[in-house]
């Protein structure tokens, strides 16, 4: 009977090293684009999202402020990757008698996802609105020192508390708090009380700045141009012919044609419009391009400001505060008047309803024009179908793919072998 000797200490150490071998993680796993220069105390923090309250990753620099991360990535159905290659450094040729130093080779790396996390600045004002705004239970807030307001929040995340108590960032933080609060000096200390009107005025100032600098192309096209676009009106050719007043030259030519004998060519030319387009048929006639007027420029600017306000309310303010701001903007105490914009949007809605009602529903020979939303829905369905097909093809094995290429014409199906046998005829 053969027995195995006990493992030595060297064999045990080799087994332990093999068991503790770790697989190297992908480098870099995420690609951040951070601002520069930053202070030595700059760091990544988990702060509550101003809109939802969930902890989210932010970049904080005491000198530059708070930054949120915006993901820049290609569409999901497009496979992309990023190659990170080391930068080649130029080294001077060694002089005579000196040995050339060998630098360690630096290998490149590839990321599986081609996405960047770009740090974009966010106003610290939005993080203080949930702290300074009074709750529904407490009612109207009182004047309080800034430190007392912070200490009253027992469930405040520790990272947010570090930001609020940072000495280098304290000056800019108090300046943003004064923009949305009423301030009273009590000795050497300032007392703050939240003011909704000042918050609305501050948001309008931000929205006006965004409108003057220009909205992004996607927002401008989707929420400004398409919203103010007037529809194509469908009119009858009979109405067009009767609405046009004949000119003097046309009247003279008509009188001359009456004196002449009717000829086939004359009849054909006069009857051409009725032959080309049957009477009563409606055709879309585009509206004449209206020249840019000061009124239309004012309405366009109001729509840009309204779009910027909607973006800030939906992204950086709680739902209760956003609804409260909507009430203030709709009231007579609003710092900005959106009545001309609302009247214009109502007029465009009426024109679109008239254009929809003027369509000849009995004529099914023409294809109905697709709206932009329907086109987006069809494109989204098509894209999802293509993604599912790609996933199905990727999950199939090579044997299944080869079996699909086999010519099965003339072969019986597998179910034919499991069918019941036909009853035998009695002799």
TrEMBL record:
Compositionally biased tracts (Low complexity): 264-279
Region described as Disordered: 88-107, 235-298, 363-406
* Residues annotated as domain Rnh202 triple barrel: 33-123
Domain Ribonuclease H2 subunit B wHTH: residue ranges: 126-325
Primary localization class, coarse: nucleus
GO terms (BP aspect):
RNA catabolic process
What GO cellular component term, any one, is given? Answer: nucleoplasm
Q: What is one Pfam family matched by this protein?
A: RNase_H2-Ydr279
For this protein, the record's InterPro entries field holds: RNase_H2_suB, RNase_H2_suB_wHTH, Rnh202_N
Which UniProt keywords are given for this protein, alphabetically ordered? Nucleus
Protein localization = Nucleus
- Quote the biased-composition stretches of kind Polar residues, using this chain's numbering: 241-254, 394-406
Q: What does this protein do?
A: Non catalytic subunit of RNase H2, an endonuclease that specifically degrades the RNA of RNA:DNA hybrids. Participates in DNA replication, possibly by mediating the removal of lagging-strand Okazaki fragment RNA primers during DNA replication. Mediates the excision of single ribonucleotides from DNA:RNA duplexes.
Q: What is this protein called?
A: Ribonuclease H2 subunit B
The scientific name of the source species is Penicillium rubens (strain ATCC 28089 / DSM 1075 / NRRL 1951 / Wisconsin 54-1255)
């Amino acid at each position: 009977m053969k027995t195995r000797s006990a493992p030595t200490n060297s064999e045990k150490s080799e087994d332990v090293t093999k068991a503790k071998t770790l697989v190297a993680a992908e480098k870099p796993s995420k690609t951040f684009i951070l601002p520069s220069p930053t202070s030595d105390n700059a760091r990544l923090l988990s702060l509550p999202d101003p809109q939802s309250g969930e902890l989210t990753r932010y970049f904080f620099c005491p000198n530059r402020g708070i930054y949120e991360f915006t993901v820049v990535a290609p569409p999901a159905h497009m496979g992309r990757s990023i190659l990170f290659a080391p930068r080649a450094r130029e080294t001077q040729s060694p002089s005579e008698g000196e040995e050339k130093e060998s630098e360690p080779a630096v290998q490149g790396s590839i990321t599986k996802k081609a996405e960047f996390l770009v740090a974009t600045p966010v106003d610290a004002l939005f993080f203080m609105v949930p702290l300074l705004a009074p709750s529904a239970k407490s009612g109207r807030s009182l004047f309080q020192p800034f430190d007392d307001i912070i200490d009253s929040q027992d469930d405040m995340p520790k990272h947010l508390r570090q930001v609020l108590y940072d000495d280098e960032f304290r000056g800019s933080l108090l300046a943003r708090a004064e923009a949305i609060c009423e301030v009273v000096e009590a000795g050497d200390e300032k007392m703050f009380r939240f003011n909704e009107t000042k918050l609305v005025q501050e948001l309008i100032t931000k929205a006006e700045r965004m409108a003057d600098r220009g909205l992004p192309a996607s927002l401008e096209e989707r929420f400004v141009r398409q919203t103010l676009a007037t529809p194509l009106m469908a009119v009858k050719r009979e109405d067009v012919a009767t609405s046009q007043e004949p000119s003097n030259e046309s009247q003279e030519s008509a009188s001359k044609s009456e004196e002449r004998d009717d000829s086939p060519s004359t009849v054909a030319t006069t009857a051409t419009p009725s032959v080309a387009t049957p009477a009563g048929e409606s055709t879309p006639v585009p509206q004449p391009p209206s020249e840019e007027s000061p009124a239309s420029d004012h309405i366009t600017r109001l729509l840009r400001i309204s779009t910027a306000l909607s973006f800030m309310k939906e992204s950086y303010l709680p739902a209760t505060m956003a609804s409260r701001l909507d009430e203030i903007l709709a009231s007579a105490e609003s710092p900005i008047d959106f009545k001309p914009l609302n009247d214009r949007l109502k007029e465009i809605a009426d024109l679109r309803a008239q254009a929809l009602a003027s369509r000849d529903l009995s004529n099914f020979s023409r294809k109905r024009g697709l709206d932009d939303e329907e086109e987006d829905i069809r494109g989204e369905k098509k894209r999802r179908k293509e993604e599912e097909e790609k996933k199905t093809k990727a999950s199939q094995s090579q044997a299944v793919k080869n079996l699909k290429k086999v010519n099965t014409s003339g072969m019986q199906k597998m179910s034919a072998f499991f069918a019941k046998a036909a009853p035998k005829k009695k002799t």
